[in-house]
């Protein structure tokens, strides 16, 4: 195989590439891997060695390994970055960082971070404590995705405490991406997940009973600085993952599913480029595939902030009644730069870098 050819294989002569998209050159006594994770200088150096040595040259595998993967101390590793939506992103980021500190993968961090929020019975927009639909039933949606394109989702599930974990089971244990409703619940039970009776918390029941007095439906913007939680992870080794989980719009029509479990809408991850997640009125995000749009804008050269602003601009162009909804978007690129933008004031997000956790206010379009 010549330099520049792409190989889609798990390893090359024993030299693994986690991203599965590397060039290689075979030699009589070794395999030369031009790893996608290398910086351009290192790739150029190795390519020059091959060109100078000629096709008949022998490049021992141990020499190639040294060139490709020089010894790196932990202090030389780039920082891990965790980005998540709203105030509840702070405890989520702490949990995600703890997963990384235990040696977990980016996917582990993406899952474990949002578990904290799903388990909070006082949260009115995520997990079993969420506000119900108009029939008084809590239905949950979640997805998870890694940087190689693997994804799992569940939607319209009831009585499942951690839908994001079931979404990960879909990713890892099935050939599918999305399972819905009773089928997703049955799959969860088959995987050993307990399904609870779908009862409302006292807080959610009181709110629902109050709503029924008028049965007037209208999305509430920036409800208590909480909404869907989306979480993005860039691990120090360059791998990426993300997750998104919600109980959806309060008092929605029974059966409604929003953007959160839909890959490309509520979440999109491509570690060759970056990742993005959305929160807010899901219908506007579904109509524009805003997370996918943001990642593609980064691919075309935008910074993450520019990409977020472009995605929100598209949403506003398609949905001009700005006073009636809120959408926030976060994006993170493979170099660690991040962006955050919203339709209107009030969108907060949590940013964590190497154990430092801080809450920020996103920029916004409507002034």
Architecture blueprint of SSEs:
Blueprint: E1 11-12, E2 15-16, E3 23-27, E4 30-34, H1 40-53, H2 61-68, E5 81-85, H3 89-101, H4 106-118, E6 140-146, E7 151-157, H5 163-173, E8 178-180, H6 181-190, H7 202-212, E9 229-234, E10 240-246, E11 267-270, E12 274-280, H8 282-288, H9 290-299, H10 304-318, E13 327-333, E14 338-342, E15 348-353, E16 356-361, E17 363-364
Parallel strand pairs: 7-8, 14-17
Antiparallel strand pairs: 1-2, 3-4, 5-9, 5-15, 6-7, 6-10, 9-10, 11-12, 12-13, 13-14, 15-16
Structural overview:
The structure is a single chain. This protein has ten helices and 17 strands. The protein has 367 residues and is of the alpha+beta class. The protein has two domains: 61 residues, no CATH class; 289 residues, 4-Layer Sandwich (Glutamine Phosphoribosylpyrophosphate, subunit 1, domain 1), CATH 3.60.20.30. It has an eight-stranded mixed beta sheet. Strands 11-12-13-14-17 form a five-stranded mixed beta sheet, with helices on one face. A two-stranded antiparallel sheet has the order 1-2. Strand 13 and strand 14 form a beta hairpin. The longest helix has 15 residues. It is globular and about 50 Å long. The N terminus is likely disordered.
Over all CA atoms, what is the radius of gyration?
22 Å
Number of domains: 2
Assign a percent range to the helix content.
Answer: 25-40%
CATH C-level label of the largest domain: Alpha Beta
Q: Please, what is the average pLDDT?
A: 83
Envelope shape: globular
Task: Summarize the entry for a quick read.
It is built from ten helices and 17 strands. It is α+β, with helices and mostly antiparallel strands.
